Amino acid sequence: MEKITMEEIAQRANVSIATISRIINNKDTVKTQTKERVLRVMEEMGVHPKAASVLSDMSSNMILMCVPDFSNPFNSPVIDGVQKAAYNSGYDVLLLQSKDFYKSSEDYLKLIQNHSIAGMLILSPAPGSDLMDQLRFRCPIVMCSEYAEDYGISYVSIDDVLASEKAVNYLISTGCRKIAFLNCSLQFKYARHREKGYLKAVKAAGLEQNPSWISHVPYINYQLAFSNAKHILSLENRPDGVFACSDVFAVAAVQAAKELGLRVPEDVSVVGFDNIDLSVMSDPQITTISQPSYNLGFQACGLLLEKIKNADTPDRQIILDTELIVRGSTRLDKAVPGPVKG
After folding, report:
1. Are 88 and 43 in contact, with CB atoms under 8 Å apart?
2. How far is residue 308's CA from residue 296's CA, in Å, rounded to a whole number?
3. Which residues in 228-266 are b (16+ Cβ under 10 Å) and which e?
4. I need a surface site. Which of 84, 114, 188, 267 has the fewest CB within 10 A?
């Protein structure tokens, strides 16, 4: 079947592409008369309004996976999980480093139009709702780790708010009273939610909320995190604990503390996030939140394959558990070492 584009439907129905996408995704902001005309045109063109995959290449065995960057070690096991699930079902994975290169709708739409893609898996920050509408019109889409907070779409992720509360509450349980937060850019859902959990835990404990103890690094980068950590730990009102949104940042905080002559964990305790290999290479090893990275990718790809094979498959949202792994970067005077599930 020859692929039909959203532009062709919009042109024949004499409406905008945005109107077509709203109708396809059951938005109730379109006039009844307009909606009926568009649906009639789609029927004439042989397009089922609920089956976005009609417009994708059903003969393709290629899944497009959008990754924000390849430098973040968290992404590697997620990609492994996606590739394993895809391979088991006879599909291949095309990796795209979206980074700062793919920002506009034109970038993504051109990519999909020029390649035979069965479905799309997004690990990058969620596109805007209009762009998401247009992408879903062309092929099935599932999000992994990141997801659109105000948009109904299938995804597999974790509860970053709860996990961050767990991390900060553990620091508090060991005696920390001035806790800093090394965070990434708030363009990422995980960064927004982890900051929300951090602030929630600090507020609930009645501890000082000091804006100068919170930093936002543009992306996962050791050197930038090291500079930010060193600045925070050099303040006159110095924190005695650091929660980092990634293990890369946690290791940076440990090294910054050492360079300033501070002992870890005696003078400052550090908790990371992800439980990547780097967390056990550090000295001391990093107390961290472990998330099931491989399973995030494996299950997200499974959801996408369901949608590829059956366009009417309902959207599903799956939240996986995390675990606090206690190691040497935090004090043990009041806390008990070992895994803390939840």
Report:
1. no
2. 18
3. bbbebbeeeebbbbbbbbbbbbbbbbbbbbeeeebebbe
4. 114
Per-residue pLDDT 10s for the chain (342 aa) are 455 667 788 888 888 777 776 676 665 567 878 877 888 887 787 765 544 444 444 568 999 999 999 999 999 999 999 999 999 999 999 999 987 776 665 677 677 666 788 999 999 988 777 777 777 777 889 999 999 887 788 999 999 999 999 999 999 999 999 999 999 999 999 999 999 999 999 999 999 999 999 999 999 999 999 999 999 999 999 999 999 999 999 999 999 999 999 999 999 999 999 999 999 999 999 999 999 999 999 999 999 999 998 877 889 999 999 999 999 999 985 554 444 444
Where are the alpha helices (H) located in the chain, listed in sequence order?
6-13, 17-24, 32-44, 75-88, 105-114, 129-138, 160-173, 189-204, 222-233, 247-259, 278-281, 293-309
Burial class of 306 by CB neighbour count within 10 A (0 to 12, 13 to 18, 19+) = middle
pTM of the model: 0.81
- Strand 323-325 and strand 339-341: the pairing is antiparallel
Token pair of 205, please?
A: 């404990």
CA distance 323 to 163: 8
Tokens describing residue 264: 């870890």
Residue with tokens 């509408």: 133
Tokens describing residue 131: 């762009």
